[in-house]
Structures are given as C-alpha cells and as structure tokens.
Amino acid sequence: MTSGTTSNVMGYRIYRTIANQSSNSTYPILIGTVFGNLNRQYVDVNVLNNITYRYYVTAYNLDGESEPSNYITISVDRANAATSFSVVQESLNLAKLTWTFGGDQYNGNIKIYKREIGVSSYGSPITSLQMPVDEYFDTNIQHGRKVEYKLVRETSTGVSNPKYDVVFYPHRDISKQSSIYIDKVKYSDISKIESWVRGKPEFKVKVLGVSGTTTVEISEMWFRMGTRKDNKWSTISSTYGTVTKNWKPDYGRWFDCYTFYFVEDDGGLKWKDITIDAKSFEKVKLDSTFVSSADGVLKAINTLGKTYSNWFESGDEKIGYTYLNYYDDPSMECSTGSAPSGGYLTVKYKDHE
Asked: Which CATH class is domain 178-350?
C-alpha cells in the first residue's frame, strides 16, 4: 500500500516482541488488529510483570500491509506484593488479618478474597480497602471450615501478585480455656488384650503435648471399660475421663495437637522403660500457592520423645496412639493403629461434662 496517507487505511495491526531477547531469535508476533483508519488505540492485557516489551504497528488495506512503524519500548511494572500477610483467629467469631508492604508502597487499594479449601474459585472480594490501612477484621467465621485468604494490592500500574494465608477454624473459642474429656471407648477384639474371661480391659493413658520440639506431659489417666464385648461403647465418667480443662494454644496455633498413648493395664513384676513421642505440626509457608487441598497446609515435625521408667510394666499391653488437633470437632472419634497383640481401640472425645 502507498505510505504517507491514511485515507485508504482499513485498520492497523499491532506486533510485539520481548526487548531483552535477540531480534534474530524472537520474531515479532501479531497480538491484535484494530479496524478503521481513525481507531488508533489498543490495550495489551496479556503481559507479565517486570518484562520489557517492544511494539510496532503496520497499516493495511486491500492492497496489502505497510512497512513497520517505529518501535516503542514499554516496561511492565506491576504493584509490588505484600511482604507479609497473616490471619489469626482472636475469638470464636473474630479473625484479624494483617499485612505489611515496603515503605514506599502504602498506596492504592487492598482487595481480600476468601474461599473454603476445595472450592475452585474465590468469587468477589470480601472487602476493598484504601491504603495505607494495614488490618481487617473478619467476623463471618464458620466453625470447622478450612479457609484460604488471598490479598492483592491494586494501583494504577496493575494488580500485584497475591499473598495467601490459611486458617482451619476450630469449634473452640481460642480466646478462652477449653476442656477435653474421653467420652467413650470401645475395642475391636477384647480377647487379644484381656485373657481373663470375666476381665474388663483397664487402660492407663499418657496425654502429651510439645514445648518447642520436646515432648511434655499434659496429664495421666486410668479407667476401666464397662464391658468386654467387642466393638461395644463404654462410657467413661468425667471422674476418670477428664483430660484437661485448660487447653488454650497461643493465638494463631490452631494446629496445636494433643497425643494420647494407651496401654492396657495388666501389671507385672518388672518395670520397663518406654519412650513416647508427641505429634506436632507446623504450617507450610504460603507465599504464592493456591491450596488445592487441606493436606498440603500442615506438615509434621520431628519431636524428642519422653522416656518413662516407672509407668509401663512387664505384663501390660501396648495399644497405641490417637491424636486430637485443636481445630478438630471436639466430639470426633479416633482409632489407634493395630495393637501388637491384635485389635484396635476407638476413642470418642467431648469438650463438656
């Protein structure tokens, strides 16, 4: 087509390449077309942060396409992401969200999104806040839900990369002390652990927590089942079934865990050393991860076990562990693995007398 005139122009074609790559190895690609000789704007929405692009334009009509225009170079600078973002439940129906940015980045708007883990999208933001605000309180708490939050900053240069945090909202009020009781127990095959035909299994229990990475004792218990029938629940009175009335993790430690180690108490003539280790977790750091399932949020950490010299006797039967996390339903059921002698114990907990 003839250069120097726009009267016969039908439209324009926009080409793009990446500026920091060799022109010999990166051929410009056509990214868009606009129609009409007076339509001279185009918005490129398919760009990445911190990349420098080179653009040129050609005009076209029925006779063909013009020579390229001059090149223009543009660097895409998105808003910087938050340097930190955390969600901490402060009471039964209140969670505090806080974030920080670099010193010169407290401008624009904050948008916060929320979804239950397992749901594929966030939907609309739960709030939009004008900077420099650095906190938000979520009062729409659903107990027992596992929730991911996403925070982005929006400025005139675009939307920042997201920052994430996750909370498994417990049924308990983390601002108050709460109780744990063993409500009921049953055993799958009592003959494996209690040979006396009239005998009803008796259990002694160590309840363990963790201080740092060291196992510590929370309480010690003893109780007798009310039956020797297999898979038949025995209710444990609060006199014998009280674990603690003072469970209150630090704020943010909704993943706190108590470990229960059970031994069937038959006594014996000799004490034997036994080492028991409590289970402990830490939350995986979530800088830029869309969590597809709750399994990836926590990881177990190694703990130093506690050795007892005058608790386990030669005639006792090792049964095994159950675990109760702070965020678990207080009335949940837990089972040990298979005991060395066979069978397994199932325990039902509760948080009130």
From this structure: mainly beta
